[in-house]
């Protein structure tokens, strides 16, 4: 497989558009559309929050009940969450309007919303935006970029990635875009993500690939400990690559899963590194755990520790906070066997061996912790299982952003 410069228009047959419709203040793009020239198999994973936004309910029905999906319409600025039956009817209206202008059934249109919870969608603006998006649909790199920009809220940058591989002698592309910066915490998807592929694959295998992969990607990121009402990952496959349809867990399926994993991992890291107010991506690797599940619990405990996140912001090698977070995770281990390292582009430094300080250089540790991406590695010395979690540092700006979010 190889990484290519691309977004959701990289796979064959997909078009995209993004524009300013008038939902947000200040003229920032706020609506996007992705369309496939042919019907797609669709898969999805959704928030585990009991409070589910209307688009989550609509998309669940499309993924599991509709014959196919062919388009996605996204708005940013208003989440359409906690909006009752009116909010659900807005989803239905959005899908119907998009279906009308695209010439596809309304129940083949997925919808997504992100932004302020509790407000009803301005359907006059939404309807007008859909009408403007359809004729702008294109397959260029710029078209994909405009769509990725239009789904942002407090994100500081658009998040896109694309990979190619070969399945059965045919070039297959998997590409995605996502948004997420705050209200990010492991418990399924933790943001909005849209992945497109031209692979030919059955619905069951597509859903299995997606559901399995989120456990090691989007379920392993955290910014602030809050699981959104709107979390959704949608995966659409139109089959235009021409490979033999994947219907079982064979070699082609494993290769497809490997490419999907690369796309999902990169998007996960882009979200974690762009956490609200963040100055760096904070990665936590746990090695030597007794089970994979315990490795995940340990890694998540460290990456979500507010004290550890604050220390990372201060470039302070306060390893006691890491050991403490491991200790309250609920996993049983011997603290007098744990080794800890810090690593970044500036180098790698062992700071703890068998539960005590190595007498490391604070100056060298600060240098390593001053990079844009920092990794903490913990070897538990219990077994051979491991896991990786991603988060970010905790800064003053996180509070500022969320104190002023609605105003």
TrEMBL record:
Main location: cytoplasm
Location within or outside the cell: Cytoplasm
Site, as annotated: Cleavage: 189-190
Keywords: Acyltransferase, Amino-acid biosynthesis, Arginine biosynthesis, Autocatalytic cleavage, Cytoplasm, Multifunctional enzyme, Transferase
Sites marked Involved in the stabilization of negative charge on the oxyanion by the formation of the oxyanion hole: 114-115
GO cellular component, one term: cytoplasm
Molecular function (Gene Ontology), one example: L-glutamate N-acetyltransferase activity
Pathway(s) where this gene product acts: Amino-acid biosynthesis; L-arginine biosynthesis; L-ornithine and N-acetyl-L-glutamate from L-glutamate and N(2)-acetyl-L-ornithine (cyclic): step 1/1; Amino-acid biosynthesis; L-arginine biosynthesis; N(2)-acetyl-L-ornithine from L-glutamate: step 1/4
Entry EC number(s): 2.3.1.35, 2.3.1.1
Biological processes annotated in GO: L-arginine biosynthetic process; ornithine biosynthetic process
Active site: 190 (nucleophile)
Residue positions binding substrate: 153, 179, 190, 276, 402, 407
Coiled-coil annotated spans: none
Pfam families recorded: ArgJ
Alphabetical list of SUPFAM superfamilies matching this protein: DmpA/ArgJ-like
Catalytic activity: N(2)-acetyl-L-ornithine + L-glutamate = N-acetyl-L-glutamate + L-ornithine; L-glutamate + acetyl-CoA = N-acetyl-L-glutamate + CoA + H(+)
Family: Belongs to the ArgJ family.
Quaternary structure and partners: Heterotetramer of two alpha and two beta chains.
Protein name from the UniProt record: Arginine biosynthesis bifunctional protein ArgJ
Species classification: Bacteria, Bacillati, Bacillota, Clostridia, Lachnospirales
Gene for this chain: argJ
